[in-house]
Each structure stands twice: as C-alpha cells, then as structure tokens.
Amino acid sequence: MKIAVSGKGGVGKTTLSAGLIECFVRNGREVYAIDADPDTSLGITLGFEDEKLDNLVPLIDMKEVIESKNAGGGVMVDLNPDVADVLEDYCLKENNIKFLKMGGIKQGGTACYCKENSFLYSILNSLLLDKEEPVVIDMSAGIEHLTRGTARGVDVILVVTEPTLTSVKTAGVVKKLANDLGIGRVFFVGNKVRNEQDREFLSRSFSSDELAGIVPFDEGLLSTSQNALQGESKFQIEEIKNIWKNLVGGEQKA
Fold first, then answer.
1. Residue 158: alpha-carbon gap to chain centroid
2. 25 in helix, strand or coil?
3. What is 2-248's CATH number?
4. What is the pTM of this model?
5. Percentage helix, strand, coil, to 5, in the chain?
C-alpha cells in the first residue's frame, strides 16, 4: 500500500501520516516513512533523535551522490539513475520504520536542476513501483513531488482539511491535480473538528464516498510528540485506526 498525504500547511498532514505509519508497524510491517514537505518534520513526530535528523541530508541536496548516479557528473543527464542502494544507505532505520527526507523540488526555470530532480523522481519511482513495503509520504500542500510516472505507484491520496472554506478549497485543488495525474483514489480527511457544526460543514463539503474520516481536535496532539520508535503512541486514536483499516482492509492490533 502506497499512501500520499497532502493538504494546506498546518492542517495535520504529519499527524495523520505518523498515525498511519504506526498502524503498519503495530501490524508487524516494515514501512517507508517519507518526509516530502520541507516545512515540517515527520522524523521528529515519529520520535527519531534530533541529532540523527540533523545529520540526515535531504536527498535533493546529496550533491556527491547525485553526481555519482549521473555517470560521474557529465553534461548528459541520466533521467533514470539506479538508486536502489540509496534507499538502504541513506535512510534512518528503527523499529521497522525506514525514514527518508526528500527536500523540495528544485525550481530554476532552466535545466540547471535536472540532475537533482531526476534523482528525486527516481527515488520515488523505486519506492512506489519497485518496493513491496508500505510507503507513507507526508507531502507539501500540493503534490509537486509526483509526476505522471511516479503517480502510477500511488494507491491512494489522502487530502487533509480543516473545517474552513479556505482549507476545503485547497483540498479540492489537490484532488484535481491528483486526478490529472491519473490517481483515481483520492479521499478527504477532516481534521481538528471541535464540534457538531464543524462536522456538518465537512459533511456538506464532501460526499460520503469522498470523506474517509473525521478526526476530532485534540490539544494533546499539539503539545506532545509521538514516540512510535519506543512504542509510546500519542496518535493511536480510533479515527486514524479506522481510516487505516478501511484503506488496507486489515485488522489493527491492540
């Protein structure tokens, strides 16, 4: 199961991503946890040590590795470099979680970043198309890391939204982008729902087939971080477990 989680900044993408990752871990699965949002830190949320995270260079900034994968840094760009070893050598591994930090897609308006972006897309291709392990990608507000090619490996996109008009509109844009890439399974997750009025707003905004779940506001999730690596979860709430069960058709262990 390959899951991408998106939505505007601050809606709770990382919270949902961490909860889904832990569901896989608690069911004995190794899982790739991919931080593709430069503005957040899925690694911190999952409980990796700060020092290890500080020393983990985003894949997009691994200049020497990128050059080596590009036939020694020649002028010709390899659009599909072999990156299988990168997935094993440059990720943090603990408690069945393999954590990778992507970094942002390079924007330049020219071919100056072709090598970096091709390298990143090859990593995603390998994860989404070649690996048997589950993959959970904590995306930025959009889905810029996905191309029409990499999108073929995505089983589902979950678009997280707060019960506000701005957040709902952003969620709709993300769904259109995903559909344009050929991703058919796009669902919405309402988050930070405080009352029945919020719940009704989300129910009016999306059809029952589109809405994968509604997660209530929880002050504890804002003031504490999960420690999934040591089995001390802050995010194992029923709503997230139910979303996971519905996606994978599995049974969550106690």
1. 9
2. helix
3. 3.40.50.300
4. 0.86
5. 45, 15, 40
